[in-house]
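Sequence dictates fold. Below is an illustrative record:

_____
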Amino acid sequence: MTLRWAGFSATAGAVVAMDQAAKAWVQASFRLHESRPVIEGWFHLTYIRNPGAAFGLFADQDAVLRQALFLGVTAVALVAIGVMVHRLPTGRRAALAGLALVFGGAVGNLIDRLRWGEVVDFLDVFWRTHHWPAFNLADSAITVGVAVLLFEEFFGKHEAGPAEKDSP
């Protein structure tokens, strides 16, 4: 295993471990739909289950169709990320970190879908009556990872270089 894959795996693995540990704690400590303030009027921990995609998209669709769609899309995304990591030129550490965050977040939510058919969400951010849809650490990692990738793509210095080759 090369240094590239070791760093990628460690980062993605840490995201999965933290995400699953946080979800396990929420499930053990909260009743479904229970909410506890962290910062009153702005941020609560609220245990919900989301059968849909981001923002509850497709939540009302047939469960079997929805599950097949989400599992298929996730599988394609994970393979695509693996290919991108393999082809990434040496020295693109920010892009590698961003890809690892997205990969780890996708795996964290995939585990939920495989175990329960839905995703555990618990981070509830709002202002007065304006609520952001509840989310979790995996969602946060995906969002931060995409932001890192976009920032690195538009503002990073890119030197042409070959992708790192794995040694046998």
User: Anything to note?
Assistant: The chain has one domain: 3-155. Residues 64 and 117 are 9 Å apart (CA to CA). The chain is about 55% helix and 15% strand.
